[in-house]
Structure formats: C-alpha cells, structure tokens
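Tokens as discussed.
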C-alpha cells in the first residue's frame, strides 16, 4: 500500500489499526487522495486472511471535520467542462458517479466481510461521521469536548455518503429527522443515548476497547444487512409511520419556509429510503445529493459559509509582513452591556482585562455579567466552577484609568455620544504605551471623525461588535482615513483570538451592517404606515428568509435607539436624510406611548412576564390607512424586505466601504441573518443575475419610491453582464 495520510499496523492478534493522520493539515479532512488510500486499506483488510478486522482512529487531537468542500465545488466545474465537451447527459452521468463515490466507498467497507470498528477521539463531523457510521462498532471518547454530528444542512447540503439512511435505521424516525434537519453537534452521552455510538471510554482506552470488540467475535455485518431487520419506527406505511410523516412535513415547512432544498431532500430521502433495501436506499440518497449539490442555494452557501468564511477566519484581509499581534492585556472603557460583554469574550480567550467605568459600582456591575454568563455555562454542563473563578480573576473592574497601563489594546464601548467618546479617548491615551492600539466599538459614528480626538490616529481603528456579543460571531473592523496597517493587523488578530469572524470595511456612517439592516427596519416601518397588517409584514419577512421580522428586530435594537439614530442623521445630514413618516411613527411609539422595545416590555410587541410576545393591538391606531390583506402582493413584500438590504450593500461597494464581496456576504449572514440560502446580500444579486435584479428593482422603484432605484454601479454591471464576484474577485486574490 502507498499511504501518506494513514498509518497501517497489525498487532499480534491479527487486528489492524488504520490511523488517520494527514501530515500537512492540523485537522484530517476527506479528499480524493484520502479516499484512494482508504480504498487500499479496505482491500488489504478484506483480502488478508490473517487480519481479523480493523480499527479506524485518528493520530490527531480530533478525528475529522469531514469532507473538503472545495473538492465538491470542483465537481461543479468539471460538470460544466464535461457538458460543453460531451453534452448535458454525459455530464450528469459523470457528476452522479463522482458525487456518490464516497458513499460507495463506505458501503464497500461495510460489506467487505471483515469487522471495522471506529475509535472516535475529539470532533467527528460530516463525511467523517458518515465513515464511522459505516463501521460495525463505534467507541467514542467521553471527553467533554468530543462531538459527533452531520452539520451539512448548515452549508446548503445534506449527508450524502449514507448518513441519512444509517441514522434513520439507528433511531426513531422522528428523532433521526430532527437530528438531520438541525445539523447539531452531539455530546458523547447524547450520541450513546441516540444509539449512534455503542460505547464511551477515556481517550486513552478507545483503540483497546475497539480491538476488544473485534477480538471478542464482533461481526462484520451491519444491522440493516441482517435478515429480518426492522427499522426502529417500523414501516413507513403503517399506523406508527403515518404519525411521523405529516408532522415531519409540517415541521419542515415551519422551520425552513421551503427555502432550503437540502432540508427538503432529507425529508424525501429518508421517506423513500426507508421503503427500500440499503443499496437501493443509498442510490436514492446519491441521486438527491447530486441534485442538491448543483442547486444555486448549495453553491451560494458553500461559497459564503464555508469557503469565504474560512478564508476570512484565516486572515485573508490581514496586511502582510506585520508581526502577529498577541495581546495579553486589553482595556475596555465602559462597563455597560456592550462593554461588559466584550470584557467577557476577551477574558474567555485567556487575556487579562481592565474594565473601566465612571465609578466602582458601575464597573462591578459590568463584571457581574461575566459571572452570570459563566454560571449559565456551568448550569448547562459546559463549564466548571473553577473555569468561572479563573475567568473572573482575569477581569479587573475599576474606575482607575491608571489600570490601563500595560494594555496592548483598548476598546472604547461608552455611550454613543461624540463628546463622551472624545473624553475617554483622551483620558486613556495619557496612560497607554506608545505602541498600544485604540479601538472604538461605535455602531454608527465615523471612525475618521472619532480619531480626531486621538494623538495617534494611525493607531485608531473601529472594532464593532454585535449584540449579544457572546453569541454573535461577526465583528466589523473599520478602517479610518488615517488608520495604519499595524492597527488593522492587530484588530484582525484580536478578533481571531476571541474566535469570531472579522470583516474589514472602510469608514462611513453606519459602516456596512447597520446601513443594510437599518434599511430593513425602515422598510418594515414604511409598510406599516402604508397600511400593511403588522402580522403580514412579520410573517412574510420570515418567509423571505429573515430570522425575525423588521418590527421584532426593532424591538430588540430598542425603539429609543432607532429614534436617536434618526435624530442624529437629521442633525448631521439635514432633514432630507430621513423619512418623515418613519420619524413620526417612532415619535408616536416612543414619546407618546412610552414604548421602548423589549427592554421595557413594550414596543411593536407586548412582552408579558409569562407567555409569548404578541403584536401590540395599538399599532392599528397608528395606521392612517389600512390595506385589505387580499389585495397586497406578497411577493412585493418579500422582495422589498430583501432588495432594500441588497441595494444598500451594492451602494457600500460603490462607496468603497466594501471592497471584497466575501465580506458583504459573510457579514450579512453572520451579522443580521440575511436569508442564508441566498449566500448573502451580494450573492442574491449575482444569483438572480444583475440585469434581472436591476429590472426588478426598477419595478419596485416605480411602485414604492426612489429608495429602490439601483445605483450607478449596478446599472453599469447590468449593461456589461458582470457579477460582483466576477468584477471584484481579483481583489480577493490580492488581499
């Protein structure tokens, strides 16, 4: 055998160990080369009478993250080449054969006649978990960090190497569908309770336990290949089966709004597969997988949520030739909710934090948030009391600015007021060393203007977190006119150190994310003013793919903050910069009715202490007109809510705020949940075709106003037949 990614050894008892340990990667991934080597190993085990069976394990700290999705992307390119050269039918035959090769390889292992056992250390996801599901016995580490799962739906795919069929034969159908729909990672005890693994053991005992099973007479036959096998939920067409499928279909539609073909394919594949023998079931799965892999949703989601996000996380936009920035102490100015949350994620990453506020009481209150968040983790079994104590020890809450001495980075997170920010900037700089980086967490105020209060504007940068900081994975890094490469590199290194995804944007009012999402909120306001029923606005927003409706989102942001943003824009840019009808609506809600949003239990929704939130009945009284719901074009509503965001995103490219389409797409999904199935705000445009998008925008412009007018860049791109990734892709390579 010619093995580079595996080691193959046989012990005195005739039990082989296949150790997966790719030499040039920190984590094992499934590639064409890995598949070829696994094929050789299977042949060796099956063909050597002296070998009783084989244990598959990993030589790294974790098992594998699954398949290299760039390999699957490559199949799409080969399909196009084949179609041009040999025609569509030949291309489809090639594509189907290529994309089912992994499924066939696992089935070969499962039916080769020799027992295979998996020793699962650490994380084992996706195609790698499908590999171990094809093994006849599975021993998993009881380490609290170990996880197994099939997360493919999160990038627009579904498990296509046997995962849907094996999972559906190991557990009750409803539970299997729920697992496949959600794509969540399972802890060891969960995996065992769900019958996905047979045994848990300490990491050091995994291989020995797996070998013991083989030595004890473990059979090389999967349960579904045994005569008389019955699925846990019985036949699909049975009274019990008919209790599952109508409910599963309803859950699918409720959770996806029919926007995710991969999730629908899971439903179809399991439904069809459970009625067939395993080999035919796997063929059904493979046909659906080939179809989904070629879908525009899968292509967009793989590009944005796997390829682009991976590149950004690895520092695609980081300036070259600048030494890594590894801060050991970070200052946070302002111990309010945002500042306290920033202190928490920073300390969680192992850094010392000086949390500063106006007095000791305010600073201590900010630190208390870290205690609360860590206690929640302890209660969920995700942390220990010692972890909380160590984290709190790393945070020093104080009103004393002298405690900033030694900080390599300071993040200002005080009230959104220029004068307050100017005062704390100047006070902090009297203590900081000459090489320290100063960052502002402002959400709307231009970094260039804030840097005017700094003695070293080249070391001043924006690091904009999203709320709640501990859960939101996106951070906007904002480059001011005088920000230097050293500050940019430091900010990106810090964001990566706290395990979040950075996007780099150039300075402007509202930067990127808020420019887009505030348009979404405004459109909801204007629809309400037009007379569209509030429930219709909210429900159609979710059907369009947004996680929450614009009215609900405004409640989360806070209505008083939306009011302040409108007033600040009016003050700085003039009355023509705002919509007077929107201003009047916010004025009525906030100043006449005292409705601030979720924070005071009253906004567009009412928030009772017990029970679910409900739309405030008084909204109807704020509508001067009321439209008949049956007369409203629901497609217009959905398009307005998405187009207003994508149109603004295109303007940010035209304004050179965004210079890399990867950042707009990743930022829109991670930052404000923009319809993930589209691939993001710019991928929506590219996916429609810029000319088609512009034509539809002009239709909306004619019906609803100039805010839907496509910018000059879009019109130019439409005329030239360009796309954002085609026109600006060169910047990705140069970055």
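Sequence:
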């Amino acid at each position: 055998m010619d093995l580079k990614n595996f080691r193959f050894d046989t012990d005195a008892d005739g039990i082989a160990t296949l150790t997966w340990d790719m030499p040039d990667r920190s984590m094992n991934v499934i590639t064409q080369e890995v598949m070829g080597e696994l094929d050789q190993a299977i042949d060796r085990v099956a063909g050597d009478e002296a070998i009783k069976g084989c244990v598959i394990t990993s030589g790294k700290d974790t098992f594998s993250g699954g398949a290299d999705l760039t390999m699957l992307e490559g199949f799409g390119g080969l399909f196009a080449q084949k179609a041009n050269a040999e025609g569509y039918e030949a291309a489809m035959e090639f594509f189907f054969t290529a994309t089912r090769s992994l499924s066939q390889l696992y089935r070969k292992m499962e039916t080769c006649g020799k027992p295979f056992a998996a020793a699962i250390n650490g994380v084992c996801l996706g195609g790698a978990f499908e590999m171990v599901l094809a093994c006849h016995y599975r021993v998993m580490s009881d380490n609290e960090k170990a996880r197994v799962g099939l997360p493919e739906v999160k990038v627009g795919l579904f498990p296509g190497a046997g995962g849907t069929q094996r999972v559906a034969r190991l557990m009750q159908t409803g539970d299997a569908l729920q697992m496949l729909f959600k794509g969540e990672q399972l802890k060891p005890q969960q995996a065992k309770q769900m019958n996905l693994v047979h045994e848990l053991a300490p990491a050091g005992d995994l291989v020995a336990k797996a070998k013991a099973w083989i030595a004890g007479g473990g059979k090389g036959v999967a349960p579904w290949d045994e005569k008389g096998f019955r699925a846990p939920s019985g036949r699909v067409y049975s009274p019990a089966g008919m209790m599952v499928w109508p409910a599963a279909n309803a859950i699918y539609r409720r959770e996806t709004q029919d926007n995710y073909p991969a999730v629908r394919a899971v439903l179809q594949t399991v439904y069809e597969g459970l009625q067939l023998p395993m080999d035919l079931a796997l063929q059904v799965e493979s046909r659906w997988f080939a179809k989904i892999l070629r879908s525009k949703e899968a292509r967009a989601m793989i590009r944005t949520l796997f390829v682009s996000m991976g590149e950004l996380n690895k520092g695609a936009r980081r300036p070259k030739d600048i030494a890594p920035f590894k801060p050991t102490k970070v200052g946070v100015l302002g111990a309010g909710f945002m500042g306290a949350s920033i202190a928490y994620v920073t300390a969680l990453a192992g850094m010392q934090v000086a949390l500063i506020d106006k007095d000791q009481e305010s600073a201590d209150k900010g630190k208390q948030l870290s205690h609360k968040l860590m206690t929640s983790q302890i209660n969920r079994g995700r942390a220990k009391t010692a972890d909380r104590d160590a984290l709190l020890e790393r945070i020093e809450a104080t009103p004393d600015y002298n405690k900033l001495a030694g900080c390599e980075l300071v993040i200002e997170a005080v009230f959104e007021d220029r004068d307050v920010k100017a005062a704390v900037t100047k006070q902090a700089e009297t203590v900081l060393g000459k090489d320290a980086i100063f960052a502002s967490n402002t959400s709307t105020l231009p970094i260039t203007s804030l840097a005017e209060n700094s003695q070293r504007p080249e070391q001043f940068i924006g690091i904009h977190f999203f709320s709640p900081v501990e859960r939101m994975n996106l951070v906007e890094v904002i480059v001011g006119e005088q920000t230097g490469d050293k500050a940019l590199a430091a900010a990106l290194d810090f964001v990566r150190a706290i395990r979040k995804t950075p996007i780099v944007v150039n300075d402007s009012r509202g930067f990127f994310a808020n420019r887009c999402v505030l348009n979404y909120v405004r459109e909801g306001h204007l629809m309400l003013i037009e007379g569209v029923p509030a429930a219709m606005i909210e429900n159609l927003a979710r059907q369009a793919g947004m996680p929450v409706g614009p009215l609900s989102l405004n409640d989360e942001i806070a209505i008083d903050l939306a009011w302040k943003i409108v007033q600040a824009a009016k003050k700085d840019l003039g009355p023509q910069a705002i919509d007077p009808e929107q201003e009047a609506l916010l004025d009525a809600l906030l100043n006449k009715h005292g409705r601030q949003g979720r924070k005071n239990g009253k906004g567009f929704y009412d928030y009772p202490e017990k029970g679910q939130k409900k739309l405030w009945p008084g909204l109807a009284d704020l509508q001067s007109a009321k439209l008949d719901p049956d007369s409203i074009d629901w497609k217009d509503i959905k398009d307005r809510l998405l187009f207003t965001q994508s149109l603004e995103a295109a303007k940010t490219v035209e304004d050179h705020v965004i210079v890399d389409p990867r950042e707009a797409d990743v930022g829109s999904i991670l930052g404000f949940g923009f319809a993930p199935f589209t691939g993001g705000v710019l991928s929506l445009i590219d996916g429609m075709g810029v000319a088609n998008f512009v034509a539809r925008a002009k239709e909306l412009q004619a019906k609803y106003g100039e805010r839907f007018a496509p910018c000059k860049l879009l019109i130019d791109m439409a005329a030239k037949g360009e796309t954002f990734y085609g026109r600006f892709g060169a910047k990705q390579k140069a970055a």
